[in-house]
Specification:
The chain is an alpha/beta fold. The chain has 2 domains: about 325 residues, Alkaline Phosphatase, subunit A (3-Layer(aba) Sandwich), CATH 3.40.720; about 60 residues, Arylsulfatase, C-terminal domain (2-Layer Sandwich). A hairpin with a 2-residue loop joins strand 13 and strand 14. The longest helix has 23 residues. It starts with 6 loop residues before the first helix and ends with a helix.
Length: about 450
């Protein structure tokens, strides 16, 4: 759906460049995958040969950040190119909650103005009500669970005429679950009764309930591969967002029990295998030199889940935290013939940089959508360039810290001393990547500089 009359001028310009010349875009966004949970990022137990190969064929970023350490805000940041203090998504959405505002322009909507076919397969988590669903936010097609895989059916969701019911369910039982959610206000009671019984949706209708989550990774990638085969002669954008390795974990029979890292490793190794299948599809169709593929995670690992959670080593903490383990995640970019192979870069890059970068490579010249990200197209084509980039930590919609160079300044970490409020923290990541030594009281000059940088962002947010 086009949200602004200013899009008209962009659509008019779309015919100036032949469709086949525009690069295809694939973003693969896993869920709660930790910084170390790939072989090429140092995992001692999880084998990921296909993603390791992807890194050898492209660019591996060691200092890549999501805009949040939780799901909905991080996804909003990636799709809008905005800090969460500016796009309005401050916390995780539950079923039947108003999601990403319709006024926001997503990556899918912007690319559609250039003739792209667009698809989202997997977890959405930016609202399941009309107006904020994937098909309302620029995607031609959607297939997946509309929020986290540990959630439940929503009262207003409609069933497809040919819906598949599983686990002994029928339409009456499914509607009884919806009614229970409608009248029950206690989240704990809802979770105890029907948690993890998620609806699988095709566009805006439930096609399977409860969803067979052990097969979702396979089905999401198969849908993506089929979409490539059907649209290989026109530009396309695929936003592929598997629920794994978010808890509850599910692996298919083919991968269950195969990893030395238990079930968590099984699901990551299954993801890796299907990434390999997708990349082979691009190679087979001679699309690899005209397709940029970005692989990353939405935030750090869910450490309290212990063996079922991931690993952020050597970074501190994980999901929910604004230490490095919560927001710094793996990121690999492959675009054969354009992005140099076998390059590792420690330049600071953020997920909000993806929007303006894709706009540049797709030829979107005019857009009434102010972004906070930086166009890094020149950098990914020549990763030896120095960008002097910054990263801004935003917590629940509030600018809460900044990284510049080797330094990270966090004025409000939530770590308190008796009667003193928040303890401000300053870390040098080059010397202390695990953020164990607070240098705030020893580096007043650096603190002063970081405060000025932080103020710049505080003054530009809504």
């Amino acid at each position: 759906m086009i949200k602004s009359s200013l899009f008209a001028s962009m659509v008019a310009c779309a015919g100036l460049v032949q469709a086949q010349q525009k690069p295809n875009v694939i973003v693969i966004l896993t869920d709660d995958q930790g910084y170390q949970d790939l072989g090429c990022y140092g995992s001692p137990l999880i084998k990921t040969p296909n993603l390791d190969k992807m890194a050898s064929e492209g660019l591996k970023l060691t200092d890549f950040y999501q805009s949040s350490s939780i799901s909905s805000p991080s996804r909003a940041g990636l799709l809008t190119g905005k800090l969460n203090s500016n796009n309005g998504v401050k916390a995780v959405y539950y079923p039947e909650q108003k999601g990403l505002a319709s006024i926001e322009i997503t990556l899918a909507e912007a690319l559609k103005t250039q003739g792209y076919k667009t698809a989202c397969f997997g977890k959405w988590h930016l609202g399941d009500l009309k107006g904020s669903r994937p098909t309302d936010q620029g995607f031609d097609t959607y297939f997946g669970i509309p929020y986290s895989n540990d959630m439940y059916i929503a009262p207003s969701q409609q069933f497809a005429p040919d819906v598949l019911f599983r686990d002994g369910y029928n339409i009456e039982m499914a509607k009884a679950d919806q009614e229970f959610v409608r009248v029950t206000k206690n989240q704990d009671a809802i979770k105890q009764k029907i948690n993890h019984k998620c609806p699988l949706m095709q566009n805006n209708l439930i096609v399977e309930y409860p969803c067979d989550q052990a097969t979702t990774t396979q089905r999401y990638f198969e849908h993506a591969i089929d979409f490539i085969d059907k649209n290989k002669n026109k530009p396309f954008f695929i936003y592929l967002t598997p629920a794994m390795p978010h808890v509850p974990l599910f692996a298919s029979e083919k991968f269950k029990g195969k990893s030395k890292r238990g079930l968590y490793g099984d699901v990551v190794e299954e993801l890796d295998w299907y990434v390999g299948q997708l990349l082979e599809t691009l190679d087979k169709n001679q699309l690899s030199e005209n397709t940029i593929v970005i692989f990353t995670s939405d935030n750090g690992p869910w450490l309290t889940k212990k063996q079922d959670g991931g690993n952020a080593n050597p970074l501190r903490d994980g999901k929910f935290s604004y230490y490095e383990g919560g927001v710094r995640v793996p990121c690999i970019i492959r675009w054969k013939g354009t992005v140099p192979a076998s390059v590792t870069s420690s330049e600071i890059v953020s997920a909000i940089d993806i929007f303006p970068t894709i706009m540049n490579l797709a030829g979107v010249e005019t857009l009434n959508h102010k972004v906070d990200g930086t166009d890094i197209l020149k950098f990914i084509k020549k990763p030896t360039l120095k960008m002097n980039n910054e990263y801004v930590y935003v917590k629940y919609g509030k600018v809460s810290g900044v990284r510049k160079g080797d330094w990270v300044y966090l004025p409000e970490t939530g770590k308190k001393k008796m009667d003193e409020g928040d303890v401000p923290e300053l870390f040098n990541l080059k010397e202390d990547i695990s953020q164990q030594k607070n240098l705030h009281n020893d580096s007043k000059r650096i603190v002063s500089k970081m405060k000025k940088i932080l103020a710049k962002y505080e003054n530009t947010t809504k």
